[in-house]
Design goal:
homodimer; about 350 residues; seven-stranded parallel beta sheet; 9 strands; about 55% helix
């Protein structure tokens, strides 16, 4: 893509043309030639949108809730962009897409821009692609950006880490699900949503979540875990929301029945409260700084990996090394040293 | 650590001294000076052990099953090493340790060597630490190595990918759990274990797993997903185990009640069958090659990340760059290019 083409595409995107937005995101997904320049250009136009991450296990009702969020924002005259991420399996890709055809017809206008991305359809890391797609939506002028992702693994944690506010959906169910949450997602939750709150077990799930949030706040480990919520509130009321006294934030627990729209307004109110708290406490600024730092580190790791790949290719690929490792003539650490040492030496020579 | 100290430590480990084994694994966890040389030295002594990964959600009964496995192997006169991994939260670390104090007293001998590792206690990547600790146990002469890890995220997939055979535990429960499995773990399962098979819902879980395995085999996507099991069988009997016709492997579904020991012998028999299939089909060889290739790539990525960090440090750290990105004077891609370009140029100059 020539510089003139990049400039024209950016102009169209900034002018609010959805087709240009879709093209830019496709280039981001495919890492098409010139996509870096595109994303570089977008950066100065960002910062106007609020970015919310919605995560939770399959069946928790994420897509229904996200649809209702989008609908409600639209009714208020705000524009919305949704990025739905399927980080892992090729199996669920189709289902996600199927869901969203429905959504498009529900909402019936293009001001809800929906895009699904999967590991299979995206070259490179999904965190990078998500970060860049959010920039495109933000620069385009979307007021609200929602990142929807399944599950609680490290990938998902990295992905929702792109958002200012993270909502974790929990289905009413056995204690197992709440216990599962401990493994990674608790630390990043700014708001818990017990969806399908009309089902049996919802009260118990709310109670368990309250206890868990309370334990976290009381734990000596509080504040050491995770990049989000690390400084969340330490008061004794786990549903108390913002806590004026120590300027912290305790994740509230909201109940919704998304398919009927119950509790959606309250949920959006909680997101608004969190946003206000982020701004007034200085957390918004410090999270954004941390995100930029992480983005730079991630891009540098990718660049470094490219350098290493080039070095391996120059040496005729990995196969001969693997042969030697299998034959126990060498071992993986020795191979890594052999490949990287020349690069390190050249850098040091010039310093 | 001097070369002589490294040599003495290796000698002690190879002579079967558990204290030396524990010291080596500590050095691996802490990336103590000289740990790379240690692991390099271990490599030529490896290859004698069978390595089994056991994974599943919290509450599935992994630790009980692993205890019974270790006990049964010991009764057969085989030596056992267990590495229990807690990849994510600081919250469960204590619980895991608590469990294992119990185990040590059950088994009552040192030939079950147990070690737990957590992301918090381990510098660098857990996959690398696990790979290296397995090497130490293998070189030490343990006959059976069990890697136990929670959950189904990408980290866990990477970790159990260190094993020859992967067993996935599923608790009897609602369909949600089986659905959750689709997100990443299905592709790496060589054996499914429905533990707590005496509980309500076990039959249904077995049935759902059978359907899932069947769908996988029938799907045009079969064979494209995951690094393990990618060539698993495609026959119509999802519980059939090894399939002679196309030399594939269809994950069997085993039922156990680990706390009573029910089904444990059968489970170990299935692990044995899988091992036989791995060897006879050539999969053992090709998986080991793929693991070595991945290990080299991972070490190279780590080395490359170190180079980049050195470059950032040389330039006075990331903070000034983040300031400039916040002020929109530059953007993350431009920063990455600025840092990496000189390295790339120096490499190209010398080629």
């Amino acid at each position: 893509m020539s510089q003139a083409e990049t400039a024209a595409l950016i102009d169209d995107l900034l002018a609010g043309k959805h087709r240009a937005l879709a093209r830019v995101i496709s280039k981001i997904e495919n890492r098409a030639p010139g996509y870096r320049e595109l994303v570089s250009e977008l950066h100065e136009h960002t910062g106007g949108a609020t970015v919310v991450g919605v995560t939770g296990s399959p069946g928790a009702g994420k897509s229904t809730l996200v649809d209702k969020m989008a609908e409600t924002y639209r009714e208020r005259g705000e524009t919305v962009g949704v990025i739905a991420i399927d980080p892992s399996s090729p199996f669920s890709g189709g289902a996600v897409l199927g869901d969203r055809i429905r959504m498009a017809s529900n909402v019936g206008d293009m001001d809800v821009f929906f895009r699904s991305m999967s590991a299979r359809g995206t070259l490179g890391g999904l965190s990078t692609a998500t970060t860049d797609a959010v920039k495109a939506l933000d620069a385009f002028g979307k007021d609200r950006i929602i990142i929807e992702t399944v599950g609680a693994g490290q990938n998902e944690v990295d992905i929702v880490g792109t958002a200012d506010t993270v909502a974790v959906l929990v289905p009413p169910s056995s204690g197992d699900d709440v216990q599962m949450l401990k493994a990674g997602i608790l630390e990043i939750a700014d708001v818990f949503v017990v969806n399908k709150a009309d089902l049996d077990g919802a009260d118990r799930t709310v109670k368990e979540l309250k206890e868990m949030v309370h334990m976290r706040d009381a734990s000596p480990l509080a504040g050491t875990a995770g990049h989000h919520g690390a400084d969340a509130g330490r008061d004794d009321d786990p549903t108390g929301g913002a806590d004026d006294e120590d300027d912290g934030w305790t994740p509230p627990i909201v109940e919704t029945v998304a398919k009927r729209g119950d509790g959606v307004e309250e949920f959006l109110g909680t997101l608004h409260d969190h946003r206000e708290w982020l701004a007034s406490s200085g957390e918004l600024e410090s999270r954004r700084r941390e995100r930029y730092a992480e983005e730079i580190r991630r891009l540098l790791r990718e660049e470094a990996a490219d350098l290493v790949q080039t070095e391996i290719d120059t040496r005729g690929g990995l196969d001969a090394y693997v042969d030697a490792v299998v034959a126990k003539e060498t071992d993986p650490y020795a191979v890594a040293e052999e490949v990287v040492a020349p690069i390190r030496n050249r850098i040091e020579e010039q310093q």
